[in-house]
Amino acid sequence: MNPSHPAAQRLRIVLVGTQHPGNMGSAARAMKTMGLARLVLVAPEKRPNEESYALAAGADDVLGDAVICQTLAEAVADCRMVLGCTARSRRVQLEELMPREAAARAVAQAGAGAEVALVFGRERTGLTNDELQLCHASVHIPANPDYSSLNLAAAVQVLSYELRLALLDAASGEGNADADAAAAQEDPRELPASHAELEGFFAQLADTLDAIDFHKGRAPESAMRKLRRLYLRAGLDVREVRILRGILADAQRMAMLAGSKR
Amino acid sequence: MNPSHPAAQRLRIVLVGTQHPGNMGSAARAMKTMGLARLVLVAPEKRPNEESYALAAGADDVLGDAVICQTLAEAVADCRMVLGCTARSRRVQLEELMPREAAARAVAQAGAGAEVALVFGRERTGLTNDELQLCHASVHIPANPDYSSLNLAAAVQVLSYELRLALLDAASGEGNADADAAAAQEDPRELPASHAELEGFFAQLADTLDAIDFHKGRAPESAMRKLRRLYLRAGLDVREVRILRGILADAQRMAMLAGSKR
Fold first, then answer.
1. Do B257 and A257 touch (CB under 8 A)?
2. Would you say residue A64 lies in a domain?
3. Long-range pairs, A210-214, Cβ under 8 A, ≥24
4. Contacts B251 to A, Cβ<8 Å
5. Do A135 and A235 sit in the same domain of this protein?
6. pLDDT tens for each residue of A38-86
7. Are B243 and B163 found together in one domain?
8. Are B52 and B114 within one domain?
9. Would you say the ipTM is above 0.85?
10. What distance in Å separates the CA atoms of residue B245 and residue A55, rounded to the nearest whole number?
11. Contact A214 B3 (CB under 8 A)
């Protein structure tokens, strides 16, 4: 999984008229956790300050590199796709996308070489109608209608998360056989048990149930069928089969000891 | 789109050992924006305070209704699915789910009547190995490997968002409820075992391994850890737990007979 897919370099997060400097820091942090680095601030009420940097935590580089513009038009001048996040845009007739669909389209455009902006409005009042007119579509996070007040950083987090998933999807579609092979080597999972190994285990399980008198006169088929289903569903590996067969062997040994002395 | 799908009532967010009271408020807000209401606090360093309520904003009801427990085991005792959010669990071999897959499974279980917990650890140190042992699977937000420090509320926001999407999906699928009900009647799947039922089984399994002298001087932890992983992965239902405990009881009986006559 490539963390810095080239398309990520063409995605920018634009915050318009941010009122609380802390939110610019939290947004920078949310972006960086998802591998995004390009932040644009349009006419923030205050410039990033100490509080912003405190909340940015390790994402002070993203905040420090933020570009400051006077208008949204300036911030997205070179963009071929501009998506505006809104609580719900009844006022302007824009196509309304869910975050997942928006991220997929944004990454597809960025992957094809286009500059793409995701735009977030003011904490209290969102984007103006004029600002929404600059957007190609709106993005709506499907929040609880009775309480839809995601804070700004939370909204940036959700959209950045969807962008990251879309970027990882795009990267994995690009023939990452090498990465997969490396990952497999890092975590040498035990081999799944073979059919023969599983059947050996099931045969010993059936013998053990007899030996410890589990069925007590009932037909054995029903319990064995349920146990087979359980263990097949679990996808046992060879080590697990070894452990389970060890347990069965010990139970059989106890039954033999008990029986020989009964 | 039904905002209060009944399955949402069976989903709880559990915060373990939270260090900063503000984060409990931000988490409550994140939950409520996504239509979730049940918050459980396990041994928080401080009880929710003024700062918590300030950050909860309009979600003070969620915070005020939060249940406080002393241990994670207590918090999830009645849960049939427990998912632990981790930065990445190299230490404990748990199945690792992406948030989307985790949310789909959680909502499917909750829709079938099971109580489900999503568990978030301490800000700095996450969940302990013992706490992860109580989980059926881990959930990993695929963050930027170079900067994966989502804050607690951001992680709760991402998971709550995925839960909401899954709940909306489930609600929109209920046009086909009749077909589903018919299918369910054909194969009346048993309820998944609860946390307490599973722990009862594991305790008896440990006792049985001792009784049949499975360990033979080796430390018991390693085998038990592997067995826990296997059975948690299998997603045992109540009937399967009953069968397995029956087998253990018979093996214990044999060991007692063998021992009394050794």
1. yes
2. yes
3. A211/A251, A211/A252, A211/A255, A211/A256, A211/A259, A211/B254, A212/A251, A212/A252, A212/A254, A212/A255, A212/B247, A212/B250, A212/B251, A212/B253, A212/B254, A213/A255, A213/B250, A214/B246, A214/B247, A214/B250
4. 212, 251, 254-255
5. no
6. 999 999 999 999 999 999 999 999 999 999 999 999 999 988 889 999 8
7. no
8. yes
9. no
10. 52
11. no
* Residue A190 maps to a domain: no
Give the best residue of B26, B51, B149, B212 to mutate against chain A (max A CB count within 10 A). B212
Minimum distance, in Å, between the CA of residue A227 and any CA atom of chain B: 7
Instruction: Chain A: give the shortest CA distance to residue B164, in Å.
Output: 8
**Residue A111 sits in the same domain as residue A226:** no
Interface touch B233/A231, C-beta < 8 Å: no
Burial class (CB in 10 A: 0-12, 13-18, 19+), B191: middle
List, for residues B71-90, the tens digit of each pLDDT value.
999 999 999 999 999 876 55
The string of pLDDT tens digits covering residues A126-180 is 999 889 888 888 999 999 988 887 899 999 999 999 999 999 988 876 644 444 4
Structural domain of B214: 195-261
In-domain check, residue B162: yes
Q: Which residue of A has its CA nearest to B189?
A: A226
Distance of CA A143 to the CA centre of its chain: 18
CB pairs under 8 A between A and B: 155
Q: Are residues A106 and A147 in the same domain?
A: yes
Which residues from A are below 8 Å from B56, CB to CB? Answer: none
Q: Is residue A185 part of a domain?
A: no
Boundary-marking domain end, from B150, B178, B206: B178
Q: What is the mean pLDDT of chain B?
A: 88
Q: Which residues of A touch B29 (CB under 8 A)?
A: 149, 151, 154
Asked if A139 and A208 sit in the same domain, the reply is no
Q: Do B243 and A223 touch (CB under 8 A)?
A: yes
In this complex, do A213 and B250 lie within 8 Å of one another by their Cβ atoms? yes
Number of domains chain A is built from: 2
